[in-house]
Amino acid sequence: MIPVARPLIGPEEEAAVIAVMRSGMLAQGPEVARLEQAFAEQCGVAHAVAVSNGTAALHLALLANEIGPGDEVITTPFSFIATANSILMTGATPVFVDIDERCFNLDVRQIEAAITPRTKAIMPVHLYGHPAEMDAILAIAQRYGLAVIEDAAQAIGATYRGRPIGSFGTACFSLYATKNVMCGEGGMITTDDAQIADRLRLLRSHGSRVRYYHESMGYNFRLTDLQAAIGRVQLGRCEEFTERRIANAAFLDEAIDHPAVIKPHARQSVRHVYHQYTVRIAGDRDEAVRQLTEAGVGSAVFYPIPIPSQPYYRKLGYTSDAIPVAERLSKEVLALPVHPALTEDDLHTIAAAVNALQVGDPATIAA
Ligand SMILES: *Cc1c(COP(=O)(O)O)cnc(C)c1O
After folding, report:
1. Which of 153, 168, 228, 309 has minimal Cβ neighbours within 10 Å of its Cβ?
2. CA 273 from chain center: how many Å?
3. pTM, entire model
Protein backbone atom coordinates (compact mmCIF):
# COMPACT_ATOMS: atom_id res chain seq x y z
CA MET A 1 0.00 0.00 0.00
CA ILE A 2 1.28 3.47 -0.88
CA PRO A 3 0.76 5.40 2.37
CA VAL A 4 -0.89 8.82 2.27
CA ALA A 5 1.90 10.19 4.50
CA ARG A 6 5.36 9.00 5.44
CA PRO A 7 8.17 10.93 7.12
CA LEU A 8 11.57 10.87 5.42
CA ILE A 9 14.16 10.16 8.09
CA GLY A 10 17.79 9.58 7.21
CA PRO A 11 21.17 9.07 8.81
CA GLU A 12 21.51 12.80 9.54
CA GLU A 13 18.41 12.81 11.74
CA GLU A 14 19.66 9.67 13.50
CA ALA A 15 23.11 11.17 14.13
CA ALA A 16 21.57 14.39 15.44
CA VAL A 17 19.50 12.52 18.02
CA ILE A 18 22.45 10.43 19.15
CA ALA A 19 24.57 13.55 19.58
CA VAL A 20 21.91 15.06 21.84
CA MET A 21 21.63 11.86 23.89
CA ARG A 22 25.39 11.83 24.40
CA SER A 23 25.41 15.52 25.36
CA GLY A 24 23.42 14.79 28.50
CA MET A 25 21.18 17.81 27.79
CA LEU A 26 17.85 16.33 26.72
CA ALA A 27 15.30 19.02 27.58
CA GLN A 28 15.11 22.52 26.08
CA GLY A 29 18.67 23.67 25.39
CA PRO A 30 21.03 24.73 22.62
CA GLU A 31 19.38 22.59 19.91
CA VAL A 32 16.06 24.33 20.52
CA ALA A 33 17.79 27.71 20.25
CA ARG A 34 19.42 26.67 16.96
CA LEU A 35 16.13 25.40 15.55
CA GLU A 36 14.46 28.69 16.49
CA GLN A 37 17.20 30.65 14.74
CA ALA A 38 16.88 28.54 11.58
CA PHE A 39 13.08 28.84 11.63
CA ALA A 40 13.19 32.61 11.99
CA GLU A 41 15.53 32.77 8.99
CA GLN A 42 13.32 30.42 6.98
CA CYS A 43 10.30 32.68 7.56
CA GLY A 44 12.19 35.96 7.30
CA VAL A 45 11.21 37.17 10.77
CA ALA A 46 13.08 38.35 13.83
CA HIS A 47 11.79 35.78 16.34
CA ALA A 48 10.81 32.13 16.46
CA VAL A 49 9.69 30.44 19.67
CA ALA A 50 9.61 26.64 19.86
CA VAL A 51 6.87 24.83 21.77
CA SER A 52 5.78 21.25 22.35
CA ASN A 53 3.28 21.00 19.47
CA GLY A 54 1.26 23.01 16.97
CA THR A 55 -1.79 23.19 19.22
CA ALA A 56 0.31 24.74 22.01
CA ALA A 57 1.69 27.18 19.42
CA LEU A 58 -1.84 28.35 18.52
CA HIS A 59 -2.91 28.53 22.15
CA LEU A 60 0.10 30.61 23.19
CA ALA A 61 -0.03 32.81 20.07
CA LEU A 62 -3.58 33.80 21.03
CA LEU A 63 -2.62 34.42 24.67
CA ALA A 64 0.41 36.47 23.64
CA ASN A 65 -1.94 38.61 21.51
CA GLU A 66 -4.00 39.12 24.70
CA ILE A 67 -7.03 37.20 23.51
CA GLY A 68 -9.26 35.75 26.20
CA PRO A 69 -12.77 35.52 27.65
CA GLY A 70 -15.31 37.79 25.94
CA ASP A 71 -13.26 38.06 22.73
CA GLU A 72 -14.18 36.63 19.34
CA VAL A 73 -11.76 35.18 16.82
CA ILE A 74 -12.82 34.70 13.20
CA THR A 75 -11.61 31.44 11.69
CA THR A 76 -12.43 28.70 9.21
CA PRO A 77 -14.79 25.79 9.86
CA PHE A 78 -12.73 23.58 7.54
CA SER A 79 -9.57 22.69 9.42
CA PHE A 80 -8.15 20.35 12.01
CA ILE A 81 -10.00 20.73 15.32
CA ALA A 82 -6.93 22.27 17.02
CA THR A 83 -7.49 25.55 15.14
CA ALA A 84 -10.78 26.27 16.89
CA ASN A 85 -9.97 24.42 20.11
CA SER A 86 -7.01 26.73 20.68
CA ILE A 87 -9.46 29.65 20.67
CA LEU A 88 -11.71 27.88 23.19
CA MET A 89 -8.66 27.17 25.39
CA THR A 90 -8.17 30.90 25.92
CA GLY A 91 -11.82 31.38 26.89
CA ALA A 92 -12.52 33.28 23.65
CA THR A 93 -15.21 32.37 21.11
CA PRO A 94 -14.50 31.02 17.63
CA VAL A 95 -16.64 32.62 14.90
CA PHE A 96 -16.76 30.55 11.75
CA VAL A 97 -16.79 32.07 8.27
CA ASP A 98 -17.42 29.77 5.31
CA ILE A 99 -14.71 28.79 2.84
CA ASP A 100 -13.90 29.43 -0.79
CA GLU A 101 -14.57 26.28 -2.79
CA ARG A 102 -11.58 26.55 -5.09
CA CYS A 103 -8.82 26.84 -2.50
CA PHE A 104 -10.58 25.48 0.63
CA ASN A 105 -9.52 28.55 2.68
CA LEU A 106 -11.52 31.34 4.37
CA ASP A 107 -13.85 33.13 1.95
CA VAL A 108 -12.50 36.61 2.52
CA ARG A 109 -15.66 38.21 1.07
CA GLN A 110 -17.57 36.97 4.12
CA ILE A 111 -15.19 38.09 6.87
CA GLU A 112 -16.42 41.65 7.36
CA ALA A 113 -20.01 40.59 7.95
CA ALA A 114 -18.79 38.44 10.85
CA ILE A 115 -16.97 41.26 12.66
CA THR A 116 -18.54 42.53 15.89
CA PRO A 117 -17.28 44.89 18.61
CA ARG A 118 -15.87 41.79 20.36
CA THR A 119 -13.78 40.61 17.40
CA LYS A 120 -10.08 40.68 18.30
CA ALA A 121 -8.36 38.53 15.70
CA ILE A 122 -8.57 36.62 12.43
CA MET A 123 -7.05 33.16 12.32
CA PRO A 124 -6.65 32.00 8.71
CA VAL A 125 -5.47 28.46 8.01
CA HIS A 126 -3.27 27.78 4.99
CA LEU A 127 -5.06 24.52 4.39
CA TYR A 128 -3.24 21.70 2.60
CA GLY A 129 -0.29 24.07 2.13
CA HIS A 130 -2.17 26.61 -0.03
CA PRO A 131 -1.82 30.10 1.49
CA ALA A 132 -4.98 31.95 2.44
CA GLU A 133 -5.70 35.30 0.77
CA MET A 134 -3.44 37.37 2.97
CA ASP A 135 -3.82 40.73 1.17
CA ALA A 136 -7.55 40.82 1.86
CA ILE A 137 -7.16 39.44 5.38
CA LEU A 138 -4.46 41.96 6.31
CA ALA A 139 -6.49 44.84 4.84
CA ILE A 140 -9.56 43.89 6.91
CA ALA A 141 -7.44 43.36 10.02
CA GLN A 142 -5.89 46.79 9.62
CA ARG A 143 -9.24 48.49 9.03
CA TYR A 144 -10.74 47.01 12.21
CA GLY A 145 -7.59 46.86 14.35
CA LEU A 146 -7.50 43.07 14.56
CA ALA A 147 -4.56 40.73 15.15
CA VAL A 148 -3.76 38.16 12.48
CA ILE A 149 -2.69 34.76 13.76
CA GLU A 150 -1.81 32.36 10.97
CA ASP A 151 -2.38 28.64 11.42
CA ALA A 152 0.55 27.68 9.22
CA ALA A 153 0.72 24.09 10.51
CA GLN A 154 0.53 22.75 6.95
CA ALA A 155 2.39 25.49 5.12
CA ILE A 156 6.09 25.64 5.98
CA GLY A 157 7.95 26.82 2.87
CA ALA A 158 4.85 28.33 1.24
CA THR A 159 4.82 31.92 -0.01
CA TYR A 160 2.15 34.51 -0.75
CA ARG A 161 3.12 37.08 -3.39
CA GLY A 162 6.72 35.99 -2.82
CA ARG A 163 6.58 36.57 0.92
CA PRO A 164 7.08 33.59 3.24
CA ILE A 165 4.13 32.23 5.14
CA GLY A 166 4.91 32.84 8.78
CA SER A 167 5.80 36.51 8.27
CA PHE A 168 2.36 38.16 8.26
CA GLY A 169 1.66 38.55 11.99
CA THR A 170 1.96 35.82 14.56
CA ALA A 171 2.21 32.44 12.81
CA CYS A 172 2.01 28.91 14.17
CA PHE A 173 3.62 25.80 12.76
CA SER A 174 3.35 22.14 13.66
CA LEU A 175 6.24 19.69 13.48
CA TYR A 176 4.00 16.66 13.96
CA ALA A 177 5.22 13.44 12.31
CA THR A 178 3.17 13.81 9.11
CA LYS A 179 3.84 17.51 8.51
CA ASN A 180 6.12 18.70 5.68
CA VAL A 181 8.93 19.34 8.19
CA MET A 182 8.63 17.20 11.30
CA CYS A 183 10.24 16.09 14.55
CA GLY A 184 7.63 13.67 15.92
CA GLU A 185 5.76 16.26 17.97
CA GLY A 186 6.67 19.92 18.00
CA GLY A 187 5.50 23.45 17.29
CA MET A 188 6.88 26.87 16.42
CA ILE A 189 5.60 30.44 16.57
CA THR A 190 7.12 33.12 14.35
CA THR A 191 6.77 36.88 14.77
CA ASP A 192 8.56 40.15 14.13
CA ASP A 193 7.20 41.58 17.38
CA ALA A 194 9.75 41.42 20.21
CA GLN A 195 7.13 41.93 22.90
CA ILE A 196 5.00 39.03 21.65
CA ALA A 197 8.09 36.82 21.41
CA ASP A 198 8.97 37.70 25.00
CA ARG A 199 5.44 36.85 26.21
CA LEU A 200 5.57 33.56 24.33
CA ARG A 201 8.84 32.58 26.01
CA LEU A 202 7.32 33.31 29.41
CA LEU A 203 4.09 31.47 28.63
CA ARG A 204 5.82 28.31 27.46
CA SER A 205 7.74 27.92 30.69
CA HIS A 206 5.62 28.80 33.73
CA GLY A 207 5.94 32.56 33.33
CA SER A 208 9.54 32.32 34.38
CA ARG A 209 12.53 34.22 32.99
CA VAL A 210 14.69 33.60 36.02
CA ARG A 211 14.37 30.11 37.44
CA TYR A 212 11.79 29.82 40.25
CA TYR A 213 10.77 33.46 39.82
CA HIS A 214 7.35 33.62 38.13
CA GLU A 215 6.21 36.92 36.67
CA SER A 216 3.18 35.72 34.71
CA MET A 217 0.89 32.74 34.29
CA GLY A 218 2.47 30.04 32.20
CA TYR A 219 2.55 26.40 31.13
CA ASN A 220 5.09 23.73 30.40
CA PHE A 221 4.93 23.77 26.60
CA ARG A 222 8.67 23.40 25.99
CA LEU A 223 10.21 21.45 23.13
CA THR A 224 13.07 19.04 23.88
CA ASP A 225 16.55 19.16 22.35
CA LEU A 226 16.01 15.59 21.11
CA GLN A 227 13.10 16.74 18.97
CA ALA A 228 14.73 20.03 17.99
CA ALA A 229 17.76 18.13 16.66
CA ILE A 230 15.50 16.16 14.29
CA GLY A 231 13.60 19.31 13.36
CA ARG A 232 16.77 21.18 12.50
CA VAL A 233 17.95 18.50 10.06
CA GLN A 234 14.45 18.36 8.57
CA LEU A 235 14.25 22.13 8.20
CA GLY A 236 17.54 22.01 6.30
CA ARG A 237 15.85 19.61 3.88
CA CYS A 238 12.65 21.67 3.63
CA GLU A 239 13.41 23.02 0.17
CA GLU A 240 14.27 19.57 -1.18
CA PHE A 241 11.09 18.09 0.36
CA THR A 242 8.93 20.95 -0.92
CA GLU A 243 10.26 20.74 -4.45
CA ARG A 244 9.50 17.03 -4.50
CA ARG A 245 5.96 17.64 -3.26
CA ILE A 246 5.43 20.29 -5.93
CA ALA A 247 6.87 18.01 -8.63
CA ASN A 248 4.68 15.11 -7.45
CA ALA A 249 1.62 17.36 -7.55
CA ALA A 250 2.54 18.52 -11.05
CA PHE A 251 2.79 14.89 -12.15
CA LEU A 252 -0.65 14.10 -10.72
CA ASP A 253 -2.13 17.28 -12.26
CA GLU A 254 -0.89 16.12 -15.63
CA ALA A 255 -1.70 12.42 -15.31
CA ILE A 256 -5.10 12.45 -13.60
CA ASP A 257 -7.97 12.79 -16.02
CA HIS A 258 -11.37 11.67 -14.78
CA PRO A 259 -14.76 13.36 -15.17
CA ALA A 260 -15.66 12.74 -11.51
CA VAL A 261 -12.40 14.05 -10.06
CA ILE A 262 -11.63 17.75 -9.58
CA LYS A 263 -7.93 18.40 -9.10
CA PRO A 264 -6.61 20.98 -6.63
CA HIS A 265 -6.26 24.58 -7.73
CA ALA A 266 -3.24 26.75 -6.93
CA ARG A 267 -3.54 30.52 -7.31
CA GLN A 268 -0.93 32.34 -9.41
CA SER A 269 0.05 34.48 -6.42
CA VAL A 270 1.08 31.62 -4.14
CA ARG A 271 3.59 28.85 -3.72
CA HIS A 272 1.42 25.88 -2.75
CA VAL A 273 3.54 23.37 -0.80
CA TYR A 274 1.11 20.45 -1.12
CA HIS A 275 0.98 19.23 2.44
CA GLN A 276 -1.96 17.41 0.92
CA TYR A 277 -2.94 16.83 -2.69
CA THR A 278 -6.67 17.03 -2.22
CA VAL A 279 -9.08 16.16 -5.01
CA ARG A 280 -12.86 16.35 -4.93
CA ILE A 281 -14.78 13.20 -5.79
CA ALA A 282 -18.21 13.32 -7.39
CA GLY A 283 -20.41 10.43 -6.44
CA ASP A 284 -19.60 7.85 -3.80
CA ARG A 285 -16.40 8.81 -1.96
CA ASP A 286 -16.40 5.72 0.27
CA GLU A 287 -16.50 3.61 -2.88
CA ALA A 288 -13.58 5.63 -4.31
CA VAL A 289 -11.57 4.95 -1.14
CA ARG A 290 -12.41 1.25 -1.41
CA GLN A 291 -11.30 1.07 -5.05
CA LEU A 292 -8.11 3.01 -4.37
CA THR A 293 -7.29 0.74 -1.42
CA GLU A 294 -7.80 -2.27 -3.64
CA ALA A 295 -5.34 -0.75 -6.12
CA GLY A 296 -2.79 -0.27 -3.33
CA VAL A 297 -3.25 3.48 -3.00
CA GLY A 298 -3.73 5.01 0.44
CA SER A 299 -5.94 8.08 0.80
CA ALA A 300 -7.47 10.12 3.60
CA VAL A 301 -10.27 12.57 4.25
CA PHE A 302 -9.19 15.93 5.68
CA TYR A 303 -11.68 16.66 7.17
CA PRO A 304 -14.90 14.62 7.20
CA ILE A 305 -16.84 16.96 9.52
CA PRO A 306 -16.53 20.77 9.64
CA ILE A 307 -15.61 22.01 13.11
CA PRO A 308 -18.95 23.68 14.03
CA SER A 309 -20.71 20.44 13.07
CA GLN A 310 -18.60 18.32 15.43
CA PRO A 311 -20.55 16.83 18.36
CA TYR A 312 -18.74 18.98 20.93
CA TYR A 313 -19.33 22.21 18.98
CA ARG A 314 -23.01 21.31 18.52
CA LYS A 315 -23.22 21.07 22.31
CA LEU A 316 -21.79 24.58 22.48
CA GLY A 317 -24.64 25.75 20.24
CA TYR A 318 -22.93 25.90 16.85
CA THR A 319 -24.77 24.80 13.71
CA SER A 320 -23.84 24.17 10.10
CA ASP A 321 -26.33 26.77 8.80
CA ALA A 322 -23.80 29.40 7.77
CA ILE A 323 -21.17 27.07 6.29
CA PRO A 324 -22.77 25.33 3.28
CA VAL A 325 -19.55 25.23 1.25
CA ALA A 326 -17.54 23.62 4.06
CA GLU A 327 -20.35 21.11 4.60
CA ARG A 328 -20.42 20.16 0.93
CA LEU A 329 -16.65 19.97 0.48
CA SER A 330 -16.23 17.86 3.62
CA LYS A 331 -18.23 15.19 1.79
CA GLU A 332 -16.21 15.46 -1.45
CA VAL A 333 -12.54 15.91 -0.50
CA LEU A 334 -10.02 13.11 -0.69
CA ALA A 335 -6.27 13.46 -0.17
CA LEU A 336 -4.00 11.32 -2.35
CA PRO A 337 -0.34 10.57 -1.57
CA VAL A 338 1.97 13.44 -2.63
CA HIS A 339 4.79 13.13 -0.06
CA PRO A 340 8.47 13.20 -1.03
CA ALA A 341 9.00 9.49 -0.34
CA LEU A 342 6.91 8.56 -3.43
CA THR A 343 8.71 6.87 -6.33
CA GLU A 344 7.90 7.40 -9.98
CA ASP A 345 6.23 3.97 -9.99
CA ASP A 346 4.09 5.08 -7.05
CA LEU A 347 2.98 8.16 -8.95
CA HIS A 348 2.00 6.11 -12.00
CA THR A 349 0.08 3.69 -9.75
CA ILE A 350 -1.78 6.55 -8.05
CA ALA A 351 -2.78 8.24 -11.32
CA ALA A 352 -3.84 4.95 -12.94
CA ALA A 353 -5.94 4.01 -9.90
CA VAL A 354 -7.66 7.40 -9.90
CA ASN A 355 -8.30 7.30 -13.65
CA ALA A 356 -9.88 3.85 -13.28
CA LEU A 357 -12.35 4.91 -10.55
CA GLN A 358 -16.00 4.04 -11.02
CA VAL A 359 -17.84 6.25 -8.58
CA GLY A 360 -21.10 7.33 -10.18
CA ASP A 361 -22.44 10.58 -11.43
CA PRO A 362 -20.01 13.44 -12.19
CA ALA A 363 -23.00 15.77 -12.66
CA THR A 364 -23.34 15.96 -8.85
CA ILE A 365 -20.20 18.07 -8.66
CA ALA A 366 -20.02 21.60 -10.09
CA ALA A 367 -16.58 22.29 -11.57
C1 LIG B 1 -1.44 19.61 12.62
C2 LIG B 1 -2.31 20.80 12.72
C3 LIG B 1 -2.51 21.50 13.92
C4 LIG B 1 -2.03 21.01 15.25
O5 LIG B 1 -0.72 20.68 15.34
P6 LIG B 1 -0.23 19.59 16.42
O7 LIG B 1 1.25 19.68 16.32
O8 LIG B 1 -0.77 18.27 15.97
O9 LIG B 1 -0.75 19.99 17.75
C10 LIG B 1 -3.26 22.66 13.87
N11 LIG B 1 -3.80 23.11 12.75
C12 LIG B 1 -3.67 22.46 11.58
C13 LIG B 1 -4.28 23.04 10.35
C14 LIG B 1 -2.93 21.27 11.52
O15 LIG B 1 -2.80 20.63 10.37
Report:
1. 309
2. 11
3. 0.97
